[in-house]
TrEMBL record:
Superkingdom of origin organism: Bacteria
Pfam families, per the entry: ZnuA
Keywords: Signal, Transport
Molecular functions per Gene Ontology: metal ion binding
UniProt similarity note: Belongs to the bacterial solute-binding protein 9 family.
InterPro entries in the cross-refs: Bact_metal-bind_prot9, ZnuA-like
Keyword Magnesium attributed: no
Listed GO biological process terms: metal ion transport
Lineage summary: Bacteria, Bacillati, Bacillota, Clostridia, Eubacteriales
Protein name as annotated: High-affinity zinc uptake system binding-protein ZnuA
UniProt gene name: znuA_1
Length: 69
């Protein structure tokens, strides 16, 4: 995890994307160490908000786009 934190700091990572199926503990720890935020993205396995696959991917694109600003 030390190398991951170093990488994030060196590359000025501002957002860490996580899947719903993965424990957020590591992502939240890394984000806290580097001053980043954690954002959840939809995957094929995600079945939230009654969204279909296309809408989920559109939401992911919008989230990623806004995170790059």
């Amino acid at each position: 995890m030390e190398e991951l934190i170093k990488y994030c700091k060196e590359n000025k990572i501002k957002t860490i994307f996580v899947e719903d199926m993965v424990s957020p503990k590591v992502s939240e720890t890394v984000a806290k160490e580097v001053g980043a935020k954690v954002e959840k993205i939809y995957t094929v396995e995600s079945k939230e908000d009654n969204k279909d696959y296309i809408q989920s991917m559109k939401d992911n694109l919008e989230l990623i786009y806004n995170s790059l600003r």
